[in-house]
């Protein structure tokens, strides 16, 4: 005797266990931005880290390029439900950038050229989990995907990987960024479907 009505199978899951719930695979790399693409000249580009007491560390483009870089292959997951597997990036680990930064902060507010911000726990930027990425798929990172450099935090929804990164403000208390102030989740774990506040 059948106890399940034909056609009723519940939520269909991908056979790929790297695909979080509610996501679909794409071979494309969709471009989604909150505003116009900023034109950032590498000669004038700067990345800064400011600690909770105002101490500031900064790198020019040439100084960033002189740091040890890594090539990483990671899966990325957008809050709009697409996922792209095995993406290849080149960048400098946040572990390298923060190695000489003394802080008691637990949180970071990432700032971008163009005014965008996003907040993250500092621990999510450390231990090989995050990079300032300047290369994608063997080439320079295109401006529409956040070039010349973007934050890359692949274990969180992709809005946390701020495009056009220019600064990281270290803070003792959490403070919501651009999308978080508009109702998106403060953390954004794709495996827990943390898309919006309350998820």
TrEMBL record:
<dbReference type="Pfam" id="PF00174">
    <property type="entry name" value="Oxidored_molyb"/>
</dbReference>
<feature type="compositionally biased region" description="Basic and acidic residues">
    <location>
        <begin position="8"/>
        <end position="19"/>
    </location>
</feature>
<protein>
    <submittedName>
        <fullName>Sulfite oxidase-like oxidoreductase</fullName>
    </submittedName>
</protein>
<dbReference type="InterPro" id="IPR036374">
    <property type="entry name" value="OxRdtase_Mopterin-bd_sf"/>
</dbReference>
<dbReference type="InterPro" id="IPR000572">
    <property type="entry name" value="OxRdtase_Mopterin-bd_dom"/>
</dbReference>
<feature type="region of interest" description="Disordered">
    <location>
        <begin position="1"/>
        <end position="22"/>
    </location>
</feature>
<feature type="domain" description="Oxidoreductase molybdopterin-binding">
    <location>
        <begin position="35"/>
        <end position="179"/>
    </location>
</feature>
